[in-house]
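Dear V.,

Thank you for sending over the compound details. I've combined the ligand you provided, 3-isopropylmalic acid, with the protein sequence from our construct and run the structure prediction for the complex. I'm sharing the raw inputs here so there's no ambiguity about protonation or stereochemistry in the SMILES, which I know was a concern on your side last time.
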Amino acid sequence: MRRSWRIAVLPGDGIGSEVVGATLPLLRHASQMAGLDLNWDMLPWPSTAWHEDNGQMMPDDALAQLSQYDAMLMGALGDPGPTSNPNRYLLSDGVSLSPLLTLRKGFDLWACERPAQLLEGAHQYLADDRARDVDMLVIRENSEGEYVNQGGRLHRGTPRETATQLEVFTRAATERLLRHAFESAQRRAAERKEKGQTRHFKRLDGSHATSQVCLITKRNALPEWGELYTEVFEQLSQRYPDVAIHHELIDAACMKFVQAPWQFDVVAASNLQGDILTDLAAILSGGMGVAPSCNLKPDDRSVPPLFEPTHGSAPDIAGQHLADPTAMILTAAMMLDWMGVEDPAASDAAEHLRRATEASLKARNEGSTLTGTDNISQHIEHFLAQR
Amino acid sequence: MRRSWRIAVLPGDGIGSEVVGATLPLLRHASQMAGLDLNWDMLPWPSTAWHEDNGQMMPDDALAQLSQYDAMLMGALGDPGPTSNPNRYLLSDGVSLSPLLTLRKGFDLWACERPAQLLEGAHQYLADDRARDVDMLVIRENSEGEYVNQGGRLHRGTPRETATQLEVFTRAATERLLRHAFESAQRRAAERKEKGQTRHFKRLDGSHATSQVCLITKRNALPEWGELYTEVFEQLSQRYPDVAIHHELIDAACMKFVQAPWQFDVVAASNLQGDILTDLAAILSGGMGVAPSCNLKPDDRSVPPLFEPTHGSAPDIAGQHLADPTAMILTAAMMLDWMGVEDPAASDAAEHLRRATEASLKARNEGSTLTGTDNISQHIEHFLAQR
Ligand SMILES: CC(C)[C@H](C(=O)O)[C@@H](O)C(=O)O
Ligand SMILES: CC(C)[C@H](C(=O)O)[C@@H](O)C(=O)O
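Below is the predicted structure of the protein with 3-isopropylmalic acid bound, written out as structure tokens.
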């Protein structure tokens, strides 16, 4: 059903505003081509506020304002602090990131999804050519776990100083995460079937399934939540007999993401372990220059999801218009995909944007040495205009 | 100074006893060639005890017995549990690993070191040929942090279940870890200089250093210990002005281990983050089949270090003599290196063992399709005999 969409655009810091600037005209163009009714407002809330102003990074009513929108499209957050600090790239990067966690927590965007698929023309880091077949979805728990920010420092600065940080995992959050992982596996298998494709995942009893969920824990060293995850996983799996189950310890999983990533389908992980695996997944997709990501509340479409490239604000190259906008453009396409569940025009727009980006990537890979945020964006525009 | 050495050999579980069996004759031979006075006792304490016996995996006086030795050489620990459990590979692997943590904690082996260097003939996973230049040392905190095993499960099995796990970091352990990292960087630069090699690491002010320590944290999401690590790092760095300093967040570090690992020198990380990075470092060295590791107390040579391959007990192939013993043989060479600080004969033996292993790897890579634990060991023996 066609409808109208309102999105909040948050350019953020550093290269964020550059890649957003390069993306919006393409998003506009692709939407017009598809007849998609898409509107946006720019919300310029850079985190430079924390050192230039009163330390506040978003207005007090930020969440209320943002909840008026259907989705959020963000460039990048992260500012290394005042330029007067010579070690600013090295020794400070924490302070200005909190808005990201505020948005995730404020809207209970409990899942972070990052697909890994090597687009034609994207850089292949692995020597084995099966790296071209990588096709996985990493689903990260985004609301609790290692990121509850409960901790402190005792006897600060003294030889007996002790810092603590608590990890908190609930069965409720574990269940919704893993249920979503199983459902995503089923959906992916159905999509493959529609395209006439199948994949086979071996079960322990020798039989095969057409999709798989791999659970990640470090239950041999962090047993409490590792066993909770394992128990919930085993229980839920009985409701999804068509999906094969698998488990990897986080250290082995990182290794296997480099050794044989084509073996994975859906991967479900905790907040920190998912953070690590999604960065590795980005590399498998061709690097930070092309890796989109999404924070969402899968069980409630009325809550605006937050779409952002996996890359950060890259303060070292900010202001020079050197950043590759491809990841941001693919992030916009991911947002269109999400809208496409309700509105076929959005799916069409996503298709236009993604195909043009792929054509550009392929052409760039075949010899053109195109660099520069705006040059790349114009290159993609060229392919969009041809569609 | 020549002296006599006593080591405790702990074959452990699964492929552990197979690779140990394949390594000891070579260790004997190399020692004899070098005139090294080396003796060992076999301590067969497999963790199968936990399901076959009373759940106890080592005798009560294990630590007392082991403290009589100069070093420990372990195959692998980890048993998937009773064969009667059909999901044993999938859903249980925690229980039997505790002896490893018991040994690390019991002897306060607070550093775990895993070098990454791609031996000639070892498998290159990365497409970029600079992967051959990788030369780093990952030093992992091995005594606290995420692995303090303080946690619990509240309202177990109910919808409101909550699992917690505490992370505890002390300034004392952080200081000894990072001091050791800086000293290791200096030692590595001196060793390079001796061989007529230099590496250059850029500082923020544009100048260059001949070695570098890269600190790993996740201080933007786990600020308490991340800031403690950063403060201690900054303070200590002033005492090592010849060493360049660098910082990476764990997610970015994993990415860079795949994108450009040749840029790293010494990498210092917490227990869990180090666990992850050392597994990736193993891949950079050519995979689990060739990756040695060591747990030690760098400030006290009277405490026996624990040498073990990075790989686990691989229950899926255990009993079939399929495992590559190379990692175990290189672990034995790492042990000889450690002895070599006091006893030149041990350095000679390490040299023999390592060169023969490299020659075999190279020959195997050039076309021979040798497999099987004992075949590979005999192949290496052949090159040892030629020296
Ligand atoms: C910026 C940081 C707090 C964040 C995270 O760890 O979640 C980032 O790495 C990400 O993956 O989105
Ligand atoms: C077996 C496990 C507890 C251990 C660890 O995490 O330390 C292993 O992965 C390792 O790296 O030695």
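A first observation: The radius of gyration of chain A is 21 Å.

Warm regards,
I. M.
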